[in-house]
């Protein structure tokens, strides 16, 4: 029997050759120099962070190139483009509204993909597999990622704060604040319902709590057995689980670092993944 959980890395990669800042002029000038009477056939994919924006700052070339692609060119033709980011933590609709305002171009849902958009895909198996199952959403501010998951169609979503409200002894080094108590679920019995998947939507804000809760789910639970109990009669060693019954762990963005407004790289969701995997490995060695 395998004692290892499934570690899935779901990543929206930047397209190789996606225009960086110095290339905007080259791309537009190549289009402009075309001697053909008909416009060239082309489509574009842009990374957002570090290409169109730098933290809260929008690069001036970004607005110009998007206006060009949106029809302000010699052919009065619109060229299709899509914006992609390994970021997340907000609903796609909200991000599109923000980007439309910041970039001064209309960005709709068909033109935008962020890291956890894949969890809503009708092609990938996540939504069809876990729509009616209990899943845990990690990361983001408050219960925003729970709401995102519910917006995708997942019907039974919990977050670590729900577990801590259910049993504060799970992680005694953190007490829920009043604003957190206001949005926790009180209708979920973690001792009777197994959590079948853990989705890391965005960068966790409370690494210690999230590591502990996820560790418990993977070590002691399965798709058919709850990881938590109110009783003291529980195993202390890792519970061996058939791989087909193992809880699925999905990281939407394994990037170790990212570039924001601060001049040096900041730790991203991938750093949390490395921290969790390190703790998980040590626990397997010590308590198996």
Principal-axis shape equals elongated
Order of helices and strands: EHEEEHEHEHEHEHHEHEEEH
Stretches where pLDDT is under 50 for at least 5 consecutive residues are: 1-29
Kindly estimate the percentage of residues that lie in beta strands according to DSSP.
5-15%
* CATH C-level label of the largest domain: Alpha Beta
Number of strands: 12
The averaged pLDDT comes out at 87
Query: Structurally, how many domains make up the residues?
Result: 2
CATH fold-level label of the largest domain? Rossmann fold
Q: Helicity range of the residues? A: 25-40%
SSE topology sketch:
Elements: E1 6-9, H1 23-32, E2 44-47, E3 53-54, E4 57-58, H2 60-69, E5 81-84, H3 92-103, E6 112-113, H4 126-130, E7 134-138, H5 144-152, E8 156-158, H6 160-166, H7 178-181, E9 197-200, H8 207-220, E10 248-251, E11 257-258, E12 266-267, H9 269-287
Helix pairs in contact: 8-9
Quick summary:
This is Cat eye syndrome critical region protein 5. By secondary structure, the protein is α/β, with parallel strands linked by helices.
């Amino acid at each position: 029997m395998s004692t290892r959980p499934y570690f899935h890395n779901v990543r929206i990669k930047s397209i190789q050759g996606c225009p960086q800042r110095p290339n905007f002029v080259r791309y537009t000038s190549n289009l402009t120099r075309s001697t053909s009477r008909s416009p060239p056939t082309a489509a574009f994919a842009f990374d957002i962070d570090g290409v169109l924006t730098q933290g809260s700052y929008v690069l001036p070339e970004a607005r110009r190139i998007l206006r060009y692609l949106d029809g302000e060119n010699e052919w009065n033709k619109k060229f299709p483009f899509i914006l992609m980011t390994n970021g997340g933590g907000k609903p796609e609709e909200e991000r599109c509204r923000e980007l439309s305002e910041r970039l001064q171009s209309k960005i709709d849902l068909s033109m935008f993909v962020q890291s956890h958009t894949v969890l809503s895909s009708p092609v990938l198996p996540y939504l069809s597999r876990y729509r009616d199952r209990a899943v845990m959403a990690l990361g983001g501010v408050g219960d925003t990622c729970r709401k995102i998951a519910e917006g995708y169609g997942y019907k039974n979503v919990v977050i670590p704060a729900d577990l801590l409200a259910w049993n504060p002894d799970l992680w005694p080094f953190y007490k829920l604040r009043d604003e957190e108590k206001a949005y926790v679920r009180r209708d979920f019995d973690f001792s009777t319902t197994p959590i079948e998947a853990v989705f890391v939507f965005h960068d966790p804000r409370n690494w210690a709590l999230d590591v502990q809760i996820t560790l418990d789910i993977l070590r002691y639970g399965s798709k058919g057995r709850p990881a938590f109990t109110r009783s003291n009669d529980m195993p202390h060693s890792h519970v061996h689980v058939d791989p087909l019954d193992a809880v699925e762990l999905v990281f939407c963005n394994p990037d170790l670092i990212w570039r924001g407004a601060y001049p040096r790289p900041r730790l991203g969701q991938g750093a949390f993944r490395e921290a969790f995997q390190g703790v998980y490995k040590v626990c397997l060695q010590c308590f198996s």
